[in-house]
Every structure is written in structure tokens, then in C-alpha cells.
Amino acid sequence: MNCERIREQIPEALAGRLDAAARETLVEHLESCAGCRSEVAELNAVWRAMESLKSGKEEGPDPAAKARFLDLLEAYKAGMGIAIEMPVRPARSFMSRPAWQAAIAAGLLIAGIFAGRFAAQPRQESPEVAQLKGQVESLRQLVALSMMQQQSPGARLRGVSYSEQISQPDSQVQQALLYAVNHDTNVNVRLSAVDALQKFAGNPEVARAMVDAISVQDSPLVQVALIDMLVQINARSVTPAIAKLSKDLQVDEVVRQRAAWALERMGGTR
Amino acid sequence: MPLDDEAVMTEVRAGDVGRLELLFDRHQPGLVRYFTYLTGNRALGEDLAQDAFFRVLKYRHTYQPGANFRAWLYQIGRNVYADHVGRHKQEVAMPSEAAEIRGSETPADREFQKKQEALLVRQALAALPGEKRELLILSRFQEMKYEEIATVLKCEVGTVKVRVYRAMRELSDRFFALSGEKAS
User: Fold this and answer.
1) pLDDT above 60: residue A111
2) Does position A87 have pLDDT exceeding 50, yes or no?
3) Please, how many CA atoms are within 13 Å of residue A91, restricted to the half-sphere of its CB?
């Protein structure tokens, strides 16, 4: 075996991960090769020096970090609950906030009346029911928009998730989501806002705004999410912009590749 | 007998997201160490680890049942770090004191020579290109086998072997160059 192949095995040998046969071959080679012996000695010195940088293994996560994670998990589960259960039901964590309690109580009351009336007359939607339905929708929007303006990323994230439960979100929600995609400091909020924009698939302005957002994003993950969403909503009107993106060398390679993939997908559906 | 990571993650994928707490307990400290070595900042390391676990939650459906969970987690971790570096264009510095990544377990009576070595190797490591530094962190500090690193980096095991050697070679050159400068 030549010296190059032997030397590539040195880190594994220092880590004690070479199997017996490979170790024997290495030792045999070292006996007759001064150059490789010197290489082992040098790398061994550095390997040992690195030992001093190794951190001790903690028993478990730091309690504060664990608490933060559990909060996140609860918020996420609450978000899943909203998606699975009645859309009117708000997440538990923000029900406790005094500012929203009245609005939520009113919302539940309206929802209750609405549900009762709707159950009694399931086949015909009276103007009164339609009005109540509108009020519930408005309340949901109000809650979602309020949450999206919160300082805490977790609250903004819940706001974005909650906005997805609005059956016919208006332009205010649309603008809030686009604002989140372009300006939110938290990548996770931006990603969720991209997902939530699916509701506006029929609006060509949103598709254009999403393309514009790709170029201002500093996160390749969000850029890829935007491209994926454009493919999902089949935004053919923006294919020239995607084509441009796929050739722009200033753009991250992964994003360029995704743009090229998107073009293929959208072209294929023609 | 405790469930292995892959079985737990399969439950999370199926919707039992509360089970992620178990995986958090098992892997968060290692992930924090990984990010701390990369960034030189423990608090930032914890934030990035938090971000990585959130993405595990959000993208849980992309986990392939049976796939090595730790390797998948570190793939996500690499994306989190890439996003972070993208937002903070300047080169990430290693900590000014090696103690920051060692934690509190270092013996107080460390010999002077070892201190010097630690300082030099830390400087040499900080001066390595990011890809090489990351390889050594995974291999030397996270004690991952080449097969696992290959999964994380999405390349062949043979490629990992060659790259780790080259990274060690460059680290060694920088380490001894710094030692020479110090001696002169």
C-alpha cells in the first residue's frame, strides 16, 4: 500500500477505530517508512492537543433551554390542535392573556350562537347567520393579526398558524403574511408565513410578491420554501422570473438548482 | 429497554410530537456542543440547537423511518448553521477563551504547556476553512464514525476519510506554524 493511502488512515488509527487487519497493515508500513512515522508523530501531537478542547459530556439539556423547548412544543401542539379541532378554538397559551380574553370570549359566544343556529337550519344560510359567520371570521383575523405583531417569535408563529384557519382571509392578512416573509427576523416565522400564503394561491399579485421576496431573502431555506410554494400553487405567470433566478450566479447554488427544478415542474404541467 | 432514536422519531413523524422531548434530552447537549465549536459562542449554540429541533418538528414528515436519526438531525443542523452564516456574513470567530467550550469540568491545575497547546490548536482550528473545521468537529469532538459523517454530509465514506486526513494535515501545518511563531 502506498504512503498516501496509509496516511489517510492515520486519523482513524488515532481515534482507535481501525480494524485489526488495517491496523496491522499500518504498523507494518510504519516499520519501514520513516516519512509516514514522522507524519503519525505530527498528527498525533495535534490530535492530543485537540483533546484539551473537548468538552465534558453533560447529563442532559440545560434546564432553561429545556423549558424553552417545552414551551415551543406546547405552542406547536396547540397549533396542531387548532388545525385538527374547531377553527374558532384559540391556542391555550394566548387564552390566558387578558387583552385577548374578552375578544375570545365574544368569539366563542358568536361561534356558539352561530353553531346553534346552523345546526337548527343546516340547509339554508340566513342573512343573520351569514353576518355571524362574518363576525367570527373577522375575530379570527383580528386575533391572527394581533399575534403576528407580538415581540415573541413564538407568538408570531402561532399568529401565522392561526391565520391559516381563516377561511377567507382578506388583504390585511395577506399583507401581514407578506410582511412576515420579507421582514420577520425569525426564519421559522418566515417559513410558516410562506406556508400560510398558500391561501392566496389565486392572487397573481401574491405570486409576484413571493418571487420578489426570494431575491431579498438571506436564508436559502426560505428561498427554497418560496419556490416550492410557487410550484405548489402552479404560479405559471412568474416562470420568467424563476428562469432568471435559475441563472443568477449571485444566488445560492441550491436555490438556483431548485429554481431550475421548479421551471421543469411548471413547464411539465403546461 | 429504552426505544432507539429511530423508533421514537417514527412516532414523532406519525404525529406524537410530544415524544420529541425524549430525543431533545438525548441529543440537544451534543448539538449545542457542535454549534458551540462552530460558532465559538455557547449562547448562540443553544439558540441554533433550539432552531434545529424546531425544524425537526416542522419537517418531521421528511424523516425516512429507519434512517439514522442523529445523522438526519445533523443534516438539519448544518442547514440551520448555513442560514445563520448567511445572515451574519462575517467569519465566525472561535471563543477568545478555550474554557468557553470546555465548560466547567476542566481541572484547575492544568499544566502551562497544555494551556499553550490548547490555545494554539484553538487558533489553528479557527483559521481552518469552515468545511474542514466542521469535519474535525464531527469526527474528533462529536466522535462520529465516518459512515455517519458521510450520511450527514451526503457523500461517500471514502471521501470523508480523505477529507478528514486533509483537514488534520492542514490543522497540523497551522498548529506547528503557530508554535514556530511563538517560539521565535
Assistant:
1) no
2) no
3) 28
How many CB atoms within 10 Å of residue A149?
12
What is the b/e burial string over A127-144, where b = at least 16 CB atoms within 10 angstroms of the residue's CB? eebeebbebbbebbbebb
Do B123 and B60 share a structural domain? no
User: Buried b vs exposed e over B109-124: b needs ≥16 C-beta within 10 Å?
Assistant: eeeeeeeebbbbbbeb
Q: Which of B41, B157, B172 to mutate to test the interface with A (most CBs of A within 10 A)?
A: B172
pLDDT one-digit tens code per residue, A229-254: 888 888 888 888 888 888 888 888 87
Angle at CA of residue B51, ends B50 and B54, nearest 5°: 90
CA distance A28 to A11: 17
Picking from A73, A46, A262, A71, the residue whose alpha carbon sits closest to that of residue B117 is: A46
Query: 15-54 in A: which are within 8 Å (CB) of B?
Result: 15, 17, 42-43, 45-50, 52-54
Q: Tell me the CATH number at B35.
A: 1.10.1740.10
Instruction: Give residue A201's pLDDT.
Output: 75
CATH number of the CATH domain containing B113:
1.10.10.10
Q: Looking at the domain assignment, is residue B49 inside a domain?
A: yes
A55-73 per-position pLDDT tens digit: 666 678 888 889 888 988 8
Is A62 in Cβ contact with B33 (below 8 Å)?
A: no
Residue of chain A whose Cα is closest to the Cα of B16: A77
**CB contact (8 A) between residue A53 and residue B162:** no
Chain B CB contacts of A191 under 8 Å are: 58
Which residues in chain B have Cβ-Cβ distances shorter than 8 Å to A251? Answer: none
Q: How confident is the model at residue A134 (pLDDT cuts 50, 70, 90)?
A: low
pLDDT tens across B7-47, in order?
999 999 998 999 999 999 999 999 999 998 888 888 889 99
Q: Are residues B83 and B1 in the same domain?
A: yes
Question: Is residue B147 included in any domain, yes or no?
Answer: yes
Domain end position, chosen among B58, B93, B128:
B93
Task: Identify the pLDDT of residue A9.
Answer: 92
* Chain A residues within an 8 Å CB radius of B83: 187, 218-221
pLDDT tens, residue by residue, B114-151: 777 888 888 899 899 989 999 999 999 888 999 999 99
Asked if residue B47 belongs to a domain, the reply is yes
Domain that holds residue B131: 107-184
The total number of structural domains that make up chain B: 2
Statement to judge: residues B11 and B74 lie in one domain: yes
Of the candidates B18, B28, B162, the beta carbon closest to that of A61 is on: B28
Count Cβ atoms below 10 Å from residue B138 Cβ, excluding itself.
Answer: 23
Residues of chain B neighbouring A8 (CB-CB closer than 8 A):
161-162, 165
The ipTM assigned to this model is 0.75
